Amino acid sequence: MSGTVQNRPLVLELLRANVPDSNLITDEAGLRPYETDGLTAIREMPWVVALPESEQQVIAILRICREHNVPVVPRGAGTGLSGGARPHQDGVVLGLSKMKKILQVDLSNCVARVQPGVRNLAISEAVVDHGLYYAPDPSSQIACSIGGNVAENSGGVHCLKYGLTVHNVCGARVAMSSGEVLELGGAGFDSPGLDLLAILCGSEGMLGVITEVSVRLLPMPEGRVVLLAAFRSIAEGAQAVAAIIGRGIVPAGMEMMDQLALTAAEAYAHSGYPEDAASILLIELDGCEEELAGTRSQVRSVLESAGAYRIDEAEDEVDQARLWKGRKSAFPAIGRIAPDYFCMDGTIPRAKLAKVLDQIADLSTEFGLQVANVFHAGDGNLHPLILFDANIEGQTETAGKLGGRILELCVHAGGTVTGEHGVGVEKLNEMCVQFTAPELEQFFALKNAMDPSAILNPGKGIPTLTRCGELGGMHVHRGRLPHAHIERY
Amino acid sequence: MDRASEIVDSVTAAGATGKRLAICGSASKRDWVPASHAGELLSVSEHAGIEDYQPTELVITARAGTAMSEIEQCLAREHQMLAFEPPRYYGMGTFGGAVACGHSGPNRPWGGALRDAVLGVDLVNGRGERLMFGGQVMKNVAGYDVSRLQAGAYGSLGVLLAVSLRVQPLWESRSTTRLELDIAQALKLTRKLARQPLPVTGTCWVEGGLYIRFAGDGSAVQRGQQGVGGDIDPQALLWNSVRDQQHDFFKASRMAQDRGEQALWRVSTPPAAELPECPASDIMIEWGGGLRWVWHDDAEFVINYARKAGGWAWRRGDRLPVPALQRKYMGAIKQAFDPDAVFVSPLDFSDAD
User: Fold this and answer.
1) Could you tell me which CATH number the domain at B4-169 has?
2) B137 touches chain A (CB under 8 A)
3) What whole-number distance in Å separates Cα of residue A48 and Cα of residue A92?
4) What digits encode the pLDDT tens for the residues B191-232?
């Protein structure tokens, strides 16, 4: 990948011949909104933004860019949190926002076929009258696009029970950098051969460009119960999480917040959270009325045994929304108590929750920066929020280092550096901790199989071995020394 | 028994000498996967044992050669199960073999496929490198989802040493109802049920009857059953016999009917797809309509039917029918994992149409 455009006027002319003029952005004011995604700390101005309106235009753009070795950065709604859609200065941002038609709602097969720019929530809105919905609900669902969800394998608060994007997508059309279009899956339950759809989910725009998605629609659950439980320690809350699962109950959602997070959320959203609690759990159960009656009482008794000193139950839908509001606005709430924050996304085995949270507290003291914890406790996906002030010299770097240490903790606890936000550009260094050199090489070989021209989203997702070697931090990974064959200097 | 280092050595040696290896567990799926005589047998059945299982994590990690029966017994003791109900053809099957072949049982449309349960793998690629992808946690988007890619790869990309799969709580209660319906009525009803929040975990139409299994919370099961009506079927073994292809329908020569020249086809279609125009006694329908077993003597008829319906058909013992363009990319992926083609693959990676 040369990373430079040899012949900009020619490439631009070719793009103009294939994409409507109004959909090609080259002026600075027009490019500005595309310089970053949801990870606003990282910015880069693109050379061109192209907004195709059809699969044919996507293919044309890919062919031109491959021919002239121009990097292509696919972009959905730009809500990603790891800089996966950070532009390339010599590259084209391929924005799919104009491809936003719901192509077909197939009620008899319970499948919706949509273009990649369709918003996540718009799918559920389109089928609500039929008693159906699309289950994955990332917190940005009002804005994020389904194509972006596939690229990131997005989760949400309900994925403990209903799975991630990969579990709810049954088909896709994918434009490859060669200009070929792969038709994968469909409305049926399986396809022959290697599971290409599985590797496209979460591939962060590095293997292909999604031009159409088929998603599975589920019947809306008949009823919901939302409970809030308050604990005097984090360990008790963590214990309750394991105990509920141990009782054979898989709640639709199970979220935890520590004191710093819950007090900030309470001040912001007035959800009625007990501010004296060391941790709170929000639990959502769903099912038919009879089932809910039974599960609710089981969960209550587990919570009490685990030491909950207060259990609230929402009385109706409005009340449920009130309890959820604090959790859902936790990030902006934290934004009010600190000028800046970094959001981490490590996942750990549930059994290690209390221990890892203790270690995070120790690191917070060591680095002198506060860390608020908001997370999907049911699936062990932590979102430690590191509070800092970018205007104080050195604090951004300190916060970054603290973040790195937290993610290393997650890896050492048997977890991963990213549960749902993706690697993007943000977690490239931490990938060196999680994977050995041969594993990273295998990722590159896979990438090369799908995108031999290497134009798709270069520099994202997988760190080069050189980068890992230069990091210098030596981490023993699963008892093995990583990158043993790389020279260090 | 941990045989990992011997397996790694075998792969490395094969790579060095240009030998090809045919990976094998218990060979229980030999009727479906064409036998390959091209390679030397690499048996993983002795590389067995459960490596890690903590029920509250909803994850089990076991070596590839572990008998599936042992896995399921171990889970059942903790009131847990594998949601995809792995088939055990001939009553056998290994953990790694199940993942490599990727077959799922009756609960697939509701509980997810085997590939949906994959969380992590410990794998030896064609270069003899031992690699780990994914892990034991539910959510993990670090790097490409190489572990899920192994489900249904038939060992083409490497030898599975160990796999972590998600598990779920055992159904508290289960009950099967039988309705006397013709095949078209049965399909219509199963599609109607799919749009309702009912604890359906299996449907099977065979021999003039639609069997519907409800499973999960006791009160929800009872309500689902009452809503649908029909007779409670005491024949609890039906689901296992369908899952393991031990049901009379799968036998070429049944008491009532001689199959003659007919072959057994597995036809996967969108669940509401039209029915094939052939005698209903030649068809069994599972998966809420999405999986149709068809006895037929005309390959072209079945293949065209499946294509028209938006699905695909696979005749027992044939190679899997992968479209040419997909095959090209699959071949490139095979090359990325196993550049010297050490592993004999039942998948067809040729460029030819």
Assistant:
1) 3.30.465.10
2) yes
3) 5
4) 999 999 999 999 999 999 999 999 999 999 999 999 999 888
